[in-house]
Amino acid sequence: MTIKLHNTRTRTKEDFVPIDADNVRMYVCGPTVYDRAHLGNARPVVVFDVLYRLLRHTYGADHVTYVRNFTDVDDKINATALARQKAGADGTLERLVQERSDETIGWYLHDMGALGALEPNYMPRATEYIGQMIAMIQDLIDKGHAYAAEGHVLFAVDSWKTHYGSLSGRSVDDMIAGARVEVAPYKKNPMDFVLWKPSTDELPGWDSPWGRGRPGWHIECSAMSYELLGDSFDIHGGGNDLMFPHHENEIAQSCCAHPEGEFARYWLHNEMLQVEGKKMSKSLGNFFTVHDLLEQGVPGEVIRFVFLQTHYRKPMDWTEKKAREAEATLRKWRALTAGIEPAASAAPAVVAALSDDLNTAGALADLYRLAADGDAAGLLASAQLLGLLSPEMGAWADTASLDLAAYEDRLADARAVAMQSKDFSEVDRLKAAYLAAGLEVRMSKDGVELVPGAGFDAAKLEEV
Ligand SMILES: Nc1ncnc2c1ncn2[C@@H]1O[C@H](COP(=O)(O)OP(=O)(O)OP(=O)(O)O)[C@@H](O)[C@H]1O
Ligand SMILES: [Zn+2]
């Protein structure tokens, strides 16, 4: 089945034709590893995980190469390391910087794993590719696309003026008029951007032909994608907040350094996760982390399901109501598919929906249909293509459904006793404890029903 993808570069939905069907190549901009990922950061991870799974399904699991980097050169990582050093932590600053990156990467992989995201084939760290970045910058200088000034190296947008801005559809002159660009005396054009900048003595830095310094953010992705995927590859992804300047700058650097290649053919951008109409972001402070949600007892699978309900090119909100509904659906589907072997392949309608520019909402609608038809094996195979209903992610559903009947009986018995004795204190105590564990308590004359909410914590029940 032909996959169609919306290409930001052409602003149209195009048939996806890989350069080499034996090795389909995708690069996605990864996180700056200075702190825990917020829920917005998880959206591109889930979106491109679905695409990765679809590509593996279509071309074969061994015929797709997915690269997602870690940006571990950053002032905020340095700031944490410095604060720890001042507080008396052992080790050189360099060591403390690396420790901070290591711990953040560990959290990231754990949290994204909890959302059912497969790990990419390569997860390069910027600090491991500094030599390649320096070589690429030197090459850009040699080719007349960059210049050194006052310890900095800058990309000269005028050397590529007719192309610069084509991804986001803006000309250099429009950008100068509209953008808040850093005006620096050493820039020839205010839009020129940094490839290399000096580092202070106490902060991490690398020796280079332009003095001790460190790379700019954009060159990291150009150098790492070239090293791992070559001068032409198929798909480049990231959030649409990266389209300008980050992706525009990646294109300028890569196309000028490797004019024989095409860099990336299909550009995919996910829309933002929002909070009351604004992008969830660290700088606005309107964020909560994936870790927070997991700690509150929201299963990673529920988070994934909620993401899949909205098309990746539409903004979306996280709401507790969506989480509760997703949890109830997943619980039903898990019960329906318990002990069943998945069908040999996902339902064609599900593959077709995903192949239509990742129509995940359409694919979920097909899963509801399979469930309604009682096709448990088809439901299981299709859900697993979307990264749902995997055995590894199901622990949350087991504990809850197994144990609740006993707790329901206990409350029903307590109520029967209380009706006789007119002493309802045990009933009230049990109800309060169940509510505190995140259960909704429904009592009617027919009996007691306990429904786990998004914050359900089975461990709390054990103390009741
Ligand atoms: N609210 C959001 N919704 C969807 N994707 C987002 C959101 N915020 C960031 N991203 C994406 O997360 C990925 C990692 O980005 P990055 O590490 O630059 O984020 P950050 O700087 O920590 O976040 P912020 O934008 O909050 O400062 C990028 O692909 C970016 O587009
Ligand atoms: Zn990038």
Automatic annotation (TrEMBL):
Protein residues bound to Zn(2+): 29, 221, 246, 250
GO MF annotation list: ATP binding; cysteine-tRNA ligase activity; zinc ion binding
Keywords: Aminoacyl-tRNA synthetase, ATP-binding, Cytoplasm, Ligase, Metal-binding, Nucleotide-binding, Protein biosynthesis, Zinc
Cofactor requirements of the protein: Zn(2+)
Binding positions for ATP per the UniProt entry: 282
CDD domains: CysRS_core (cd00672)
Top-level taxon: Bacteria
UniProt-listed InterPro entries: Cys-tRNA-ligase, Cys-tRNA-synt_Ia_DALR, Cys-tRNA/MSH_ligase, Rossmann-like_a/b/a_fold, tRNA-synt_1_cat_dom, tRNAsynth_Ia_anticodon-bd
Tagged with keyword Repeat: no
Motif 'KMSKS' region in this chain: 279-283
One BP term from GO: cysteinyl-tRNA aminoacylation
Location(s) in or outside the cell: Cytoplasm
The reaction(s) this protein catalyses: tRNA(Cys) + L-cysteine + ATP = L-cysteinyl-tRNA(Cys) + AMP + diphosphate
EC number: 6.1.1.16
'HIGH' region, short sequence motif: residues: 31-41
Residue ranges occupied by any Cysteinyl-tRNA synthetase class Ia DALR domain in the UniProt entry: 349-397
One Gene Ontology cellular component: cytosol
Co-factor binding details: Binds 1 zinc ion per subunit.
Main localization, broad class: cytoplasm
Family of this protein: Belongs to the class-I aminoacyl-tRNA synthetase family.
Subunit structure: Monomer.
This protein's name: Cysteine--tRNA ligase
Lineage, uppermost ranks: Bacteria, Pseudomonadati, Pseudomonadota, Alphaproteobacteria, Rhodobacterales
